[in-house]
Recover the amino acids of this structure.
């Protein structure tokens, strides 16, 4: 329990809420696509797929954290001026990629938060 408190306590609630809203939108899209596939897959395959999507949705804020920290380290306070439609499309693609691979990326974010909160407590 202390582990979960330390991890979630290290992230701003606003950041978590925004990430979970985006994650919920991606999850709803994937649920709709999976269930509308018709009889292409057996029910247990669809249930397993949705379970993996659900775990990925819970881990998405931590994979997004990894991306944001890498971006912060690599670019600092750099500002880019570009077309808003292109920027939003690129952000959508990056977030969809982060959501899809959150099961693999999020453990890095959780480890980062663990070590960061450990150093802050000491």
């Amino acid at each position: 329990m202390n582990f979960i408190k330390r991890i979630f306590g290290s992230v701003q609630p606003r950041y978590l809420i925004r990430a979970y809203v985006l994650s919920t939108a991606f999850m709803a899209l994937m649920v709709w696509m999976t269930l509308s596939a018709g009889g292409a897959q057996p029910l247990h395959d669809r249930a397993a797929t949705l379970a993996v999507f659900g775990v990925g949705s819970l881990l998405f804020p931590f994979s997004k954290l990894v991306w944001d920290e890498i971006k912060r380290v690599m670019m600092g306070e750099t500002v880019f001026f570009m077309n808003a439609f292109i920027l939003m499309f690129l952000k959508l693609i990056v977030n969809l990629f982060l959501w899809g691979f959150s099961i693999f990326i999020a453990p890095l974010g959780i480890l980062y938060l663990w070590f960061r909160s450990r150093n802050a407590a000491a």
